[in-house]
Design a protein that fits this description.
About 55% of the residues lie in helices and about 5% in strands. It contains 13 helices and 9 strands. It has helices at about 1-10, 30-35, 40-55, 60-80, 85-105, 110-120, 145-155, 160-175, 200-215, 220-235, 250-265, 270-295, 340-360, and strands at about 10, 20-25, 140, 185, 190-195, 235, 240, 295-300, 300-305. The strands form 4 sheets. It has a 3-stranded antiparallel sheet. Strands 1-2 form a two-stranded antiparallel ribbon. Strands 6-7 form a two-stranded antiparallel sheet.
């Protein structure tokens, strides 16, 4: 039902081109949104990732076709190619396309993956002690760029660089007091931005779980354990991920849920601690999904998820207060954040994550 709601409310052909489909970023939509004047590269990458989830869950020709159309439309709307100037954006797209190729056999994305892999690998900056900047030319090196870049590079077989990223995140952005991952650091000045966003925790949990599997090194299991318990203590209430907003922030909790599911399914080890960690990660996903579902609205028979899964969802009235770009390049929330594609994608992400852990018996 989460998938169906996105399809009916948000998916439209790009500029009336045949064989295209892209996500309209608001519902109800403004004219600029309907014509893809706004489109938000990284939101569309997560839309592709969700479409891959759906095809993996129940493979059908329609779902495979949808992935192909979304990928093609992403390239057309980006105009200049597969890449852009934001390393976090490119990392999210690389993750989605790698999964499409690996799980759905979509070999047509290989050229895009090569371009994205090269950009991400070459963005590592040893001149300032390592790290990947948020965007080209920036002095800001943050978890939302380094975490997904590490995951993408790990899945593309670049284990050495992925491990360097993991060690860099541990050394530079783990908060000793809370155990959580901080937003980012300006280099070479060393000034740290201290917000602890939920998706920063998610991507580092995912990276550590992937590296634990592929390297067999204990430090990755230990880091995942420590961060998982910090998330449980500081970012959940009764096992439900709390908070949430719109705009770019609408995706943050869904990303955390996705990578909690990765921990639940992938974290290696048969010791009691690892078994309990996998169960804890799955429990947070399941309880969050139950809360989001309980607090949803039914609009014309389909779910509308709240920005905060602990609170009842609200119907967005009209299209006033649409998300806008800030001078820094991020996207603000709509007046009622439930109108944002990011918020509804987060709900779909959460439902797919809950399906995965329950299907695995967790």
């Amino acid at each position: 039902m989460a998938e169906s709601a996105i399809i009916s409310r948000h998916l439209r052909a790009l500029w009336a081109f045949p064989g295209t489909e892209l996500g309209v970023v608001g519902w109800p939509a403004t004219k600029r949104e309907r014509t893809f004047g706004y489109w938000h590269y990284w939101w569309q990458a997560h839309l592709i990732d969700c479409a891959v989830d759906a095809a993996n869950r129940v493979p059908t020709p329609a779902r495979r076709k949808r992935i192909s159309e979304l990928v093609r439309s992403h390239r057309v709307r980006n105009i200049t190619g597969w890449t852009n100037k934001y390393y976090d954006d490119m990392a999210w797209l690389a993750i989605a396309l790698e999964r499409a190729e690996r799980t759905q056999g979509m070999t047509e994305v290989r050229g895009a993956l090569i371009a994205l892999e090269n950009k991400l690998y070459d963005s590592w900056n040893p001149a300032v002690g390592g790290g990947i900047p948020w965007r080209i030319g920036s002095d800001f090196y943050n978890a939302p760029a380094n975490g997904p870049a590490g995951i993408a590079l790990c899945r593309l077989g670049r284990y050495g660089r992925a491990q360097e990223i993991s060690d860099w995140l541990e050394e530079n952005l783990r908060d000793a007091d809370s155990g959580l991952i901080l937003d980012g650091i300006h280099l070479p000045s060393g000034v740290i931005e201290r917000p602890t966003f939920s998706y920063c925790q998610g991507v580092v949990l995912g990276l550590e779980a992937e590296l634990a599997v592929h390297t067999g090194e204990a430090r990755h299991v230990e880091r995942a354990h420590r961060l998982l318990h910090a998330v449980d203590a500081r970012m959940t209430t009764g096992g439900v991920i709390h908070g949430g907003g719109g705009g770019d922030g609408g995706l943050f909790n869904g990303i955390l849920a996705r990578y909690l599911a990765v921990v639940a399914l992938m974290l290696p080890g048969d010791a009691r601690e690892q078994v309990e960690d996998r169960q804890l990660a799955a429990t947070i996903v399941r309880k969050s999904a139950a809360a989001a579902w309980a607090n949803r609205l039914e609009v014309e028979g389909e779910p509308l998820f709240g920005a905060d899964w602990c609170k009842p969802a609200r119907v967005p009235g009209g299209s006033s207060g649409a998300g806008l770009f800030t001078t820094g390049g991020s996207v603000t929330a709509s007046e009622i954040p439930e109108r944002d594609l990011s918020v509804q994608l987060s709900g779909w992400l959460l439902m797919e994550a809950a399906y995965q852990v329950t299907a695995a018996g967790l």
